[in-house]
Amino acid sequence: MERAQAIERLADLVRAARSVVALTGAGISVPSGIPDFRSPATGLWANVDPMEVAHIEVWRTDPARFWEFYGSRFQTLGDTRPNGAHAVLVELEERGLLDAVVTQNIDMLHRAAGTRDLIEVHGTIEHASCLSCGERHPLAQTRVRLDVDPEGIPRCDCGRPLKPDVVLFGEMLPAEAIDRAFELAARADLLLCIGSSLEVHPVAQLPGITLRAGGEIAIVTQGPTPYDHRAAVKLDGDVVTELEALLAALVVP
């Protein structure tokens, strides 16, 4: 299928669907300057073993090592801005063409762009919590505490290390968020998968849930996914370009 045909096919699917849900992964944030996870040279895990720096046990036993890695992420992610792909999803939601966004990303960019119904299945860097006393601290305050601590560990007022409110390796996904994601996927006529390799479970199960319930999936991502052969549409160009083309096709009189 040629690209122009694929865009029009996707626009037709969106128009015909009673429920469209977007599932987004790291690829939607790359145009904002955030590296993905698995690219050989530039990915977040290209030169580091995540189990050695981003596991819950590392945070528990060696918080200085954990924050030496994670602190740079906090500084980087806190300064990024949404891109055109995030903006398109907001426009689709405002036009009543998109029910919700399920995201694997922790970067707050969907929220900053204006998405209203957002399910963050891997948590968010918006705040960090103390697992001892339960206090929660916003990102800006966490960054200050990270900068001033002599060991490079942001600490709660009680003195204990803060943990970012994201799902680390070795932790379960928040039950409420993943249950809602599964529910949305089951009733979606169209699951629009954007910037995701569709390989990280349990989120990778969502396309299969939609397909088994009789819905269709469309994939807008660079590189192969396990669901390419089952997608009604696969677009593998730049996510901003592809989604802006979709929006243009939808608003043509």
From TrEMBL:
The keyword NAD applies. One of its GO terms (molecular function) is histone deacetylase activity, NAD-dependent. Residues 1-253 form the Deacetylase sirtuin-type domain. The keyword NAD applies. PROSITE patterns: SIRTUIN. Keywords: NAD, Transferase. This is Unannotated protein. It comes from freshwater metagenome.
